Amino acid sequence: MTTQGKTNWLLAGAVALLGYLLGSISWARIIAGRVKPEADISRIEEPVPNSEAVFVTDSVSATAVRVHVGTRYGCLTAVLDMLKVALPTLLLRRWQPDKPYHLISALAGAIGHDWPLYYRFKGGRGESVIYGALLVIDAPGVLATNAAGALLGLLAGNILILRWAGLVLMVPWLWWRTRSAAHVLYILGANVVYWYSMRPELQQYAELEGVGEAPTQEELAEFLGMGSGLGRVLDRYSIPGLLARWRS
Length: 248
Prior knowledge:
The chain is mainly alpha-helical. 71% of the residues lie in helices and 3% in strands.
């Protein structure tokens, strides 16, 4: 569906502001403060196996809640983060389906989540909020691109490709589905916000790869909360894993 008609830019600005303020709500802080107030969710330090390195992230997120408070509270945080952006996106889409207001709100919500006004602009990375919005914007696309990303990750033996390829693949998918510049600008913007906020973690991982100390797929999958079993499958049965076993 393409967006049509004249956009009221004053209304668009108000929608962006509201989306940003809603996105700035930190469910990670709220839940951790209620359940385990002594937990410091502003930092995760994870020793890298078989190395002296320590992987550090300051993302205040559902992952931090999972690590410091517990898995069920981490899942609850992720769901609430999705809803804080998905609900306004849904309401705006239903109200003005031919205008880009829901896309503006969705992108502003991701920015608010990553750089929240209420917490000195120290937030998360935005994966949950972006997918919350995308489930409203194009749910079949989320399923299709993540399935394709999972296949690519399984073949390549890389848990990061498996997890993240879907977000990148949403760019050509939304263009193919909508032929809408507004939709493409939204998903490009969402990718920029996400990858820019992920710079510290990506840099650390690249440095570990550079010195040959990167964790195995099993170790990485466990850290990401995706299950060590999935990582073992990648280590053993992906194309690189099978080649390594054949050569040995």
